[in-house]
Amino acid sequence: MSYEKLTFFTRAMLGAENLLMTYLVPKDSPGLVFKWLFKVPILFYKAGLPMFGDFILLLTTTGRKTGKPRYTPLEYHREGKSGCFIIMAGWGGKTDWMLNVLANPRVHVQVGRNHFDAVAEKMSDDEVAEWLFHVVQVNPGSIKIWSRWAGEALDGSLESMEKAARYFPSFRLIPQ
After folding, report:
1. Most buried by CB count within 10 Å: which residue of 15, 36, 155, 162?
2. Domain 3-175 has CATH 2.30.110.10
3. Domain coordinates of the chain in residue numbers?
């Protein structure tokens, strides 16, 4: 799908996200304000109002230190052929949910009203590069975000996405 074929609402949401992530969200960590703001979808999911289900899933991991369930809303992409879901860690992978997944790849996922158990499989840098390249085709504004977070200018080519891949660890959620 190309950017031109997206609905007006979807393009508006992508534009707002691009502005937020490019200019307001800190580069090194989400910071206290955004850490809480990014948790808002959890409230909707817990209230039975999964209104973000078209683009945000709720990932439940097991805390690597506490063993308690930890909930994280994440943007996702659904792979057409496999039916798996792709999720990406920001901040160079320095996120609690990613560290939890690396310690225990068995997770629970809620997408809209659908729940399932899954195994999180780390994607190779080549797979991540191809995924980033695909996203740029749908959302050209993502290049600015990724350039900022990778610390180097990216041009949207597959070669530049290969350079960026190491900054964006990604996982494939395989339903069980």
Report:
1. 162
2. yes
3. 3-175
